[in-house]
Amino acid sequence: MELKPGLSALVTGGASGIGKALCLALAAKGIFVTIVDFSEEKGKEVASLVEIENSKFHQNLGFPSAIFVKCDVTSLNLNLAFEKHVSTYGGLDICINNAGIANTALFWKDQTDGTKTWKHTINVNLVAVIDCTRLAIKSMQALQKPGVIINMGSSAGLYPMYIDPIYSATKGGVVMFTRSLAPYRRQGIRVNVLCPEFVQTEMGEKAGAKYITLLGGYVQMENVVKGAFDLIVDESRAGSCLWITNRRGMEYWPGPAEEAKYLVLSSSSSRRKISFRAPLGAQLPQSFEKVVVHKLTHNFRDATHIVRTPLKLPIESGHVLLKIIYAGVNASDVNFSSGRYFLGNKKDLSSLLPFDAGFEAVGIIAAVGDSVSNLEVGTPAAIMVYGGYAEFMTVPSKHILPIGRPDPEVVAMLTSGLTASIALEKVGQMESGQVVLVTAAAGGTGQFAVQLAKLAGNKVVATCGGKEKARLLKDLGVDRVIDYKTEDIKTVLKNEFPKGVDIVYESVGGDMFDMCLNALAIRGRLIVIGMISQYQGEHGWKPKNYPGLVEKLLTKSQSVAGFFLPQYSYLWKEHLARQFDLYSSGKLKVAIDPKRFLGLHSVPDAVEHLHSGRSSGKVVVCIDSTFEQKMAKL
């Protein structure tokens, strides 16, 4: 959400300390503010200061640019504060639940029932935050407008604060309550929590100078304001917890390594902190079906057919049986079916027939062999070995990649996502501040390349064909989308990027390769991850001649490098974990082609759809649609 004049915000505890600083900082952006506080004198003073700031942006409004509402956040009057704000400003864009108190009494020595001491702290710091969040969500939903809610937590909610365990407990509750509200982003409502260490306020000074010194001093108020604004502005933040200290600066908590211990991906980008174990519920079959290549040709439909084969039980020692739920479709399926990936084999290629088709899949572990101690039946897992177009696969346990859920988005992160991540880093040597061109960018791997390049701080240019694909790329943050159906790519690159592009992520080949090579900047790097335009034809993959290529590269110190994912298998787990982290935090989107392909018989249709030029996002085949329906009920 852009902080701009005309928005409105409600801030509890806005009469002093952090609340006051936030009110004035919002007013400096021309935002109308309602100050909710128990102190009438201080509250009215802040309202006057807000109006002075707002006068720089607004004149003759006909309504006040600041409102003070005297209210104890634990009282029933809280509802009236929200009603007054909405009736005055016509909506609620930002709500900051800042009101909080410390607990001075030692609860175990309290001779009362705690109503006016530690229980009151719980009511102000936790119960009122829940209530304010409820009222804010209700207000935003009623008007069907997007909004942002910031709950004020504390570092004491992330680790124990021995001097005030009640305060620490309430702030810990605020943190987990807020992080559990991430799914509201689907309604346009983002709820985040801010956790600074001690700030020099009336309440912060009660901690004692010695303790503050051990922590590296007070956190500057300007950093707290900046943190709050970052959570408001960053659309990817929902259910996020921003930790601010002098020792470590600003960082999101928990970090990826800690979060990976419990975070489970769902089929959407929202977070679920639930474990997923899928009981198969029936005995394993005696046989299963799979797609095999029986004839070497680039025509995948002619090259393959479905066969039924016995399911060998018990599972071989050290191996795992995986029930396939989703399999990924790749442009290179046609190269595989033609035998091109076996050209280095000394045997006659026809002697290798038949062989299993498919590169990647996700599913559920259905059985494990002896000596496999780290994997359990019912665990979701991914594989990247030949044979993914099958109902079941038996593979060595070392090839199993445990995952959160067997969803199509995870399939996209395998060949497509890993190719983009590793190729850009290792071959492209991508840094920040560069111009990165991605061809066929709306496809399975292109969607990852544009986002990773953008996240690295680069200007991203992307080619595609069609309005829908162009719209997808714009949603993914691409700076310049070139739709070759309405624009000439060569002309755009020449006119808009006269100095050339620094990195090209190229998968089309043919004329597109020529254009990209000519558009390469001095010291530019062109990564060849494929050449889909040359894969299918009457004679299959036909090599092209590139006269003068060496001279071109030499005169500008350029480089052209190929990338083949299997040769970088030692990096798969590391880069897959990075993608999971980015996807989990909402920084990485995964587009799945909307056309549905169900069952093994639809695999040739899916391969042809990918090569038709009509696909958008990752093309995926659901191998077992009945299992998909069962999963949807969980």
List keywords for this structure.
single chain; 634 residues; Rossmann fold; Quinone Oxidoreductase, Chain A, domain 1; eight-stranded mixed β-sheet; seven-stranded mixed β-sheet; 21% strand; globular
Give the overall form. Answer: globular
Strand residue content: 15-25%
Cα-based radius of gyration, to the nearest Å: 29 Å
Total number of distinct structural domains: 3
Brief write-up:
The chain folds into three domains: 8-253, Rossmann fold; 287-406 and 618-632, Alpha-Beta Complex (Quinone Oxidoreductase, Chain A, domain 1); 414-584, NAD(P)-binding Rossmann-like Domain (Rossmann fold), CATH 3.40.50. 32% of the residues lie in helices and 21% in strands. It has 19 helices and 26 strands.
What does this structure look like?
With 634 residues, the chain is an alpha/beta fold. It has 3 domains: 8-253, 3-Layer(aba) Sandwich (Rossmann fold); 287-406 and 618-632, Medium-chain alcohol dehydrogenases, catalytic domain (Quinone Oxidoreductase, Chain A, domain 1, Alpha-Beta Complex), CATH 3.90.180.10; 414-584, NAD(P)-binding Rossmann-like Domain (Rossmann fold, 3-Layer(aba) Sandwich). The chain is 32% helix and 21% strand. The chain is built from 19 helices and 26 strands. Strands 3-2-1-4-5-6-7-8 form an 8-stranded mixed β-sheet, sandwiched between helices. Strands 13, 15, 16, 17, 18, 25 and 26 form a 7-stranded mixed β-sheet that branches. Helix 1 packs parallel to helix 2 (40-54), helix 3 packs parallel to helix 4 (118-143) and helix 11 (408-427) packs across helix 17 (572-584). The longest helix is centred in the N-terminal third of the chain and has 26 residues, at 118-143. It is globular and about 90 Å long.
